[in-house]
TrEMBL record:
Entry protein name: Metallopeptidase family protein
A Pfam entry, by short name: Zincin_1
Domain of life of the organism encoding this protein: Bacteria
InterPro entries for the chain: Zincin_1 (IPR010428), Zincin_1_sf (IPR038555)
CDD domains (UniProt xref): MMP_ACEL2062 (cd12952)
Lineage of the species this protein comes from: Bacteria, Pseudomonadati, Pseudomonadota, Alphaproteobacteria, Rhodospirillales
Length: 133
């Protein structure tokens, strides 16, 4: 459903969209995301910008930080959870540039980052998307 906005959607609004998107993930996969924290920020922090070699903070829509399920061991004890970050301003910029549905963009970015949680590379996800089309 295409939503109309009179003001740019807030961080809270994008968090709500992300929660709704999570609810569309099949239960068998969703159960493997328990403990993954989803956060929406306006932009990536400076350290992330430097680590990723970004030319602009608008270059990154989302990011997974954690240990992929394929690299985890039952004997590993992690002090912090895995995170999926969605970056509001770059997402809104992309939305304005493309005219795509904002909820679809948020869902696609979220699913892409959760794919990294499952151990998929960008190339793996691109191949899967092409096969689905």
């Amino acid at each position: 459903m295409m939503m109309r906005f009179t003001t740019p959607p807030s961080i809270e609004h994008l968090e709500q969209m992300a929660r709704q998107a999570m609810a569309t993930i099949p239960p068998a996969l969703l159960s493997k995301t328990v403990g993954v924290v989803i956060q929406v920020h306006d932009f990536p922090d400076e350290e992330t910008e430097e680590d990723m070699g970004l030319e602009s903070p608008f270059d990154l829509l989302g990011l997974y930080r954690g240990v992929a399920l394929t690299a985890k061991s039952f004997s590993d004890v992690r002090a912090e959870p895995d995170f999926v970050y969605l970056y509001r301003r770059p997402i809104l910029d992309y939305w304005c540039d493309t005219g795509e549905d904002l909820e679809d963009i948020v869902r696609n970015v979220l699913i892409h980052e959760i794919g990294h949680h499952f151990g998929l590379s960008d190339e793996d996800m691109e191949r899967l998307e092409n096969e689905a089309d």
